[in-house]
């Protein structure tokens, strides 16, 4: 007998109420395992609440989806996409799905808690980020998107609202309800996928989605250009008084950069905000190394971003 094996007599002799039952794969959590706190976010089909798992006191963000509403609005496909996509992913810059369960009325996704909220709120609070801050956060976003694409996932709705900040001010990418899984033969992004219906948010939508309803990995590259612009300027590059006029600006590539953008930032923005998807920096390649090698990122160490202290944003 090996002394390293746990003794199985302890559970037999101790009173059952003092012995915690090991939670095997078969034992699903239920809503009763959590206490719920404040609302962290609200979407059209879901509410995200702070949830504390009673047994260990661990805090999570619990996304609660109303089944009746989802079925009535025919959104079951998107809910399934979110769950299967998140289950495939494991990366420090992407919100982890710890587990999912349901009761007769709702679905529950138990997610990493990102304590510092949305990148959008940070941009608004600071008006805009200093260039070092923008560089660091775009580097983290590029790292997350490179991982996604490597896993065959196109996010399709990248924007500062879907980029959350954890307790150490590192990013956690979220909201995979509109993601697309490209089959593995297509990981190098050769043939664009035709999508059924409009997805995404007006200001970050790529021109190809507007003209021929196609989306591929390079549509996420367009969004990276929009996000870099917004980090530095405080506003997205294309913003009209309504969706129609925003779309017109996108299709005409009608934007201008403020004077304070450095030459390197200007160059990177202009190489990502390109109407032809295949002409964008990094398009058609198996990774985003072309973006990572751009002079804007010269001082970035790509190997350990997660271990770095984010720059001061004052
Ligand atoms: N709001 C939406 N999702 C969230 C999360 N995972 N953490 C914190 N706030 C959120």
UniProtKB/TrEMBL annotation:
Enzyme class of the recorded protein, top EC level: transferase
Note the superkingdom of the native organism: Eukaryota
Which residue spans traverse the membrane?
none
Q: Could you tell me which species this protein originates from?
A: Dispira parvispora
Q: Please identify the protein, giving its name as recorded.
A: non-specific serine/threonine protein kinase
The enzyme's E.C. designation: 2.7.11.1
GO MF term set: ATP binding; protein serine/threonine kinase activity
Task: Name the gene behind this protein.
Answer: PKH1
Catalysed transformations (reactions): L-threonyl-[protein] + ATP = O-phospho-L-threonyl-[protein] + ADP + H(+); L-seryl-[protein] + ATP = O-phospho-L-seryl-[protein] + ADP + H(+)
Extract the ranges annotated as region (Disordered). 1-28
Provide the leader sequence positions: none
| Positions annotated to bind ATP | 63
């Amino acid at each position: 007998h090996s002394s390293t094996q746990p003794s199985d007599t302890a559970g037999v002799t101790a009173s059952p109420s003092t012995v915690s039952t090991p939670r095997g794969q078969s034992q699903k959590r239920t809503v009763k395992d959590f206490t719920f706190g404040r609302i962290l976010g609200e979407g059209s089909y879901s509410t995200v609440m702070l949830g504390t798992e009673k047994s260990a006191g661990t805090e999570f963000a619990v996304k609660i989806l109303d089944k009746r509403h989802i079925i009535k609005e025919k959104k079951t496909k998107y809910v399934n996409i979110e769950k299967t996509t998140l289950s495939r992913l494991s990366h420090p810059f992407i919100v982890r799905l710890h587990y999912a369960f349901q009761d007769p009325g709702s679905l529950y996704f138990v997610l990493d808690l990102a304590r510092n909220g949305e990148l959008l709120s940070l941009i608004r609070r600071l008006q805009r980020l200093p260039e070092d801050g923008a560089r660091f956060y775009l580097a983290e976003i590029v790292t997350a998107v490179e991982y996604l694409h490597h896993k065959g996932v196109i996010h399709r709705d990248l924007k500062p609202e879907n980029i959350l900040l954890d307790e150490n001010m590192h990013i956690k990418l979220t909201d995979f309800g509109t993601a697309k899984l490209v089959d593995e033969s297509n990981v190098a992004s050769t043939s664009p996928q035709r999508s059924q219906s409009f997805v995404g948010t007006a200001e970050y939508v790529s021109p190809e989605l507007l003209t021929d309803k196609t989306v591929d990995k390079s549509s996420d590259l367009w969004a990276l250009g929009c996000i870099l612009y917004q980090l530095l300027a405080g506003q997205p590059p294309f913003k009209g008084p309504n969706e129609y006029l925003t779309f017109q600006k996108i299709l005409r590539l009608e934007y201008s950069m403020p004077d304070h953008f450095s030459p390197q930032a200007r160059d990177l923005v202009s190489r990502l905000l390109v109407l032809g998807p295949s002409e964008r920096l990094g398009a058609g390649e198996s990774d985003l190394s072309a973006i990572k090698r751009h002079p804007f990122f010269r001082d970035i160490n790509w190997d350990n971003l997660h271990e770095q202290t984010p720059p001061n944003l004052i």
